[in-house]
Write a structure and sequence with these properties.
The chain has helices at residues 6-9, 11-19, 33-55, 63-88, 90-100, 110-142, 144-147, 171-216, 224-274, 282-312. Helix 3 (33-55) runs antiparallel to helix 4. The chain has ten helices and no strands. The chain is an all-alpha fold. It is elongated, with a radius of gyration of 23 Å.
Length: 317
């Protein structure tokens, strides 16, 4: 079915990654404007992490402030690692897209299109939900000093150390803008790198559906020649699915492991912070928004992983 392509199905995801400098396309990273743009985005995002990490030395005696900085710092460090991983393995990502766009991975009839759209619909729903939760949490944190009235004291959305007096104008306004831009970059990168990994798992599960349908349709062959040809096609399709799944697993297994570790630590620190903030305050809503986004973040890995496992089980075939 030529009208269905994986590239268009996840175009919003790849388009957002391109804005972040993480999707150079088929040209990959060369000595061009996009590569310089990518370097600028990475340096800008990591500069905020550096200033936050430097502030840990000043706040090690304040347990509440320290827990806030640590879970925020861990999350941003992991996001930075994901961004660097996407850049480092950009050639692998483009190979994934080429394999997804190959003729063998496309649905061959209307029934297989429905199969593909079933998992795709679930992915789009989770992509939308996760993005909304992340952006809501980021928005609350962005305007936190304004909402709680501490902006008049020149407080920043995140405590950080700077080699200058950031409480004086125009340094305060510039520093505030710097933190906001970096936090939006980090939040958007988190949402789209994680959902892209989920999209890879969605594609693997869909290919198992298509292969199963092709195997069931072998009984409709008119003669032995047609049967043998279609059987060989199914064998080749199965080999490509296994190869694609193996490569995808080698790409994101470290990322997923690190995500579960960091999310577990962050949730523990966040739950501690909930106990020391005023209920239903702006900070409380900000924390709960973060907790909700982490749950959805972990849920999507578990959901699509389970979908793939169910489809490759012997009972399914």
């Amino acid at each position: 079915m030529k009208q269905f392509t994986w590239k268009s199905a996840i175009s919003v995801n790849t388009w957002t990654l391109k804005i972040l400098g993480l999707w150079p396309g088929a040209e990959l990273y060369k000595l061009n404007k996009y590569t310089f743009y990518m370097i600028f985005v990475i340096l800008l995002n990591n500069s905020h992490i550096l200033f936050q990490a430097a502030n840990v030395v000043n706040a090690y005696q304040d347990l509440k402030a320290l827990s806030t900085m640590i879970f925020s710092l861990f999350t941003k460090l992991l996001t930075s690692a994901k961004m660097l991983m996407f850049i480092w393995k950009s050639r692998t990502l483009q190979r994934f897209m080429s394999q997804m766009e190959s003729e063998e991975f496309r649905p061959r009839n209307a029934q297989q299109v429905v199969m593909a759209q079933s998992l795709l619909k679930a992915w789009k729903m989770i992509y939308f939900l996760f993005s909304v939760l992340v952006w809501s949490s980021v928005s609350l944190r962005t305007f936190y000093p304004v909402l709680d009235g501490t902006v008049k004291d020149h407080n920043l959305p995140f405590p950080a150390w700077y080699p200058y007096d950031h409480k004086t104008s125009p340094f305060y306004q510039i520093t505030y803008l710097h933190q906001v831009i970096c936090y939006w970059i980090s939040g958007t990168a988190t949402a789209n790198t994680d959902t892209f990994i989920a999209a890879l798992m969605m594609c693997i599960g869909t290919q198992c559906d298509i292969l199963s349908d092709n195997l069931r349709n072998l009984t409709n062959c008119g003669d032995d020649g047609e049967f043998n040809k279609k059987l060989v096609d199914c064998i080749e399709h199965h080999k490509k699915i296994v190869r694609f799944a193996t490569e995808c697993n080698s790409f994101f297994n470290e990322i997923v492991l690190a995500q579960f570790l960091v999310s577990s630590v962050s949730l523990a620190l966040t739950m501690f912070e909930v106990t020391v903030v005023e209920p239903l305050s702006i900070e409380w809503f900000s924390i709960m928004g973060y907790v909700s986004s982490v749950f959805v973040q972990i849920f999507q890995y578990c959901w699509f992983g389970e979908e793939v496992e169910a489809r490759v089980s012997q009972q399914y075939f």
